[in-house]
Design brief:
Blueprint (H helix, E strand, L loop, with lengths): L12 E6 L1 H11 L5 E6 L6 H10 L5 H10 L5 H5 L14 H13 L2 H12 L4 E4 L6 E9 L2 E6 L1 H5 L4 E7 L7 H9 L2 E4 L4 H9 L2 H8 L4 E5 L14 H10 L6 E4 L13 E3 L13 H13 L2
Parallel strand pairs: 1-2, 1-7, 2-3, 7-8, 8-9, 9-10
Antiparallel strand pairs: 4-5, 4-6
Helix pairs in contact: 1-3, 1-12, 3-6, 5-6, 8-10
């Protein structure tokens, strides 16, 4: 599927990794220059509508995936514009239409990935959206919040509410990963990690052993798009360098870090970085898709 408006070469394949709003922002940028797009999305969410559907139906939580499908959808699609509609009464209160669509198609198709591919077709999406793992996972973390004593925390929602996180892992420890994810990483020209919640979105994906191994073994240009602000309490007092060191501690070393130090300190960044304007003028906490697309495309052109 192709929805690019420009190309860096004969054919450009990009894989974007993360979850939620951050990854959706990257996808809105990537669709401006890539010919082939694959999103690899966290399925560790255990809260809200996603958590309820996960508990009730046993399927991977669809919320972050829904946001990414919307970012790649045909902007003229009525269905795409209705994906985020949230019911506010009755038994469906709190559920979004997109989550229910994915859940219903999963029940009908008997396969979560097949349901996502069909949703993408219905939306006229210009890329593929895949779950990071084939099964729902429980995100685990070790933090030192309580008197400096390491403490185990389980669940994405619970981890997002803590601070001083040392590491994250998964239950099961090495969850199965879709073959399509591995192939996309192998075939990619560029792999874009983030932006997004450092531990509960970004490392929730790249910390999965099979994905980490594929990233380390890839010949693609790997770019980490740093957050524009700290996220309290998860990354309170973090500068860009602290974000990058957390990636390194989990075995991930990007070729380049893209950052914008307008509202976050750079600190000591232990790898190549580019500090440039990336924030949206009207929403300083969000990445501007045009600015981000330009920066990512320029990086590819510089190879």
């Amino acid at each position: 599927m192709s929805g690019s408006t420009s190309s860096v070469g004969p054919s450009v394949s990009v894989v974007a990794i993360g979850g939620g709003h951050g990854l959706a922002a990257t996808l809105r940028a990537v669709r401006r220059y890539a010919d082939s797009i694959t999103a690899v999305v966290s399925v560790a969410d255990n809260g809200g509508s996603s958590g309820r559907l996960r508990d009730t139906l046993g399927l991977p939580p669809p919320g972050d995936i829904r946001k990414c499908l919307g970012a790649l959808a045909d902007p003229n699609s009525m269905l795409a514009n209705a994906l985020e509609y949230r019911f506010d009464t009755g038994e469906l209160k709190g559920h979004t239409l997109g989550n229910l669509l994915i859940a219903g198609l999963t029940e009908f198709c008997g396969d979560f990935v097949a349901a996502l591919d069909e949703t993408a077709r219905l939306l006229g999406a210009c890329g593929r959206v895949l779950p990071a793992t084939s099964v729902p996972v429980v995100l685990k973390a070790v933090d030192v919040h309580s008197f400096g004593i390491p403490t185990q925390v389980e669940g994405q929602v619970q981890i997002a509410a803590t601070t001083r996180i040392l590491e994250v892992s998964h239950l099961p420890e090495n969850p199965p990963v879709e073959a399509g994810v591995i192939k996309a990483l192998q075939d990619a020209d560029q792999i874009v990690i983030g932006p997004g919640s450092l531990y509960t979105s970004v490392l929730a994906v790249v910390g999965i052993p099979t994905i980490r191994e594929s990233l380390v073994g890839s010949n693609a240009q790997t770019v980490y798009v740093a957050n524009l602000r700290t996220q309290v309490p998860e990354t309170a007092n973090y500068d860009v360098g602290a974000h990058v060191r957390a990636l390194l501690a989990h075995g991930i070393k990007p070729d380049t870090v893209l950052c914008d130090s307008t509202h976050i300190a750079l600190g000591d960044i232990p790898c190549n970085f580019i500090n440039t304007a990336l924030a949206a003028d009207e929403l300083p906490g969000s990445h501007d898709p045009v600015k981000l697309a330009t920066a990512l495309k320029d990086l590819l052109n510089s190879q």
